[in-house]
Amino acid sequence: PAATSILKRQKQLRRKNVRFDQVTVYYFARRQGFTSVPSQGGSSLGMAPRHNSVRRYTLCEFAQEQEVNHREILREHLKEEKLHAKKMKLTKNGTVESEEADGLTLEDVSDDDIDVENVEVDDYFFLQPLPTKRRRALLRASGVHRIDAEEKQELRAIRLSREECGCDCRLYCDPEACACSQAGIKCQ
């Protein structure tokens, strides 16, 4: 057999690329978090230590699944916006009380009132913070019957501690009194 040239061998090696043809998604049950600090309220969201199911998709199937999921999230968000707008109209932008407005829920917003089809799903940002009530409702819907109230105090303490940053040094740093220096970091 004839020896192949080094140049031809290099060209063959360069043609090999990494290609992905599948997406594997692991699903976890929702639990109370204890691992994140939401910007407000207590009860953070977390997940069980082990997954409860696995699903494999082709890239195309996964893209379609994401599109369906994102449209559903968008539909819920638009319903919440429409509900808020209805309440504002009934209360004249919150200036008057209205029993009708207080009694409105998401079920009072018809799917016909919202237009998901004319919204560009790719332009929408899906990882948005959830209010405390919504997080608690998600936990209860996921089977968490007892929400640990201690987390609320712990989260509040962490948020307060994050407001105090740096030290009290002015003009010069006294390493014996400087909280930064004592913590082993450069004086702030």
TrEMBL record:
Q: Which GO terms describe its molecular function?
A: DNA-binding transcription factor activity, RNA polymerase II-specific; sequence-specific DNA binding
Q: Which GO terms describe its cellular component?
A: nucleus
Q: Which UniProt keywords apply?
A: Activator, Apoptosis, DNA-binding, Nucleus, Transcription, Transcription regulation
Q: Which residues form the Cysteine/serine-rich nuclear protein N-terminal domain?
A: 14-188
Where in or outside the cell it occurs: the entry states: Nucleus
- GO aspect biological process, one term: apoptotic process
Q: Which PANTHER family match?
A: CYSTEINE_SERINE-RICH NUCLEAR PROTEIN 2, TGF-BETA INDUCED APOPTOSIS PROTEIN
Q: Which family does it belong to?
A: Belongs to the AXUD1 family.
Please identify the protein, giving its name as recorded.
CSRN2 protein
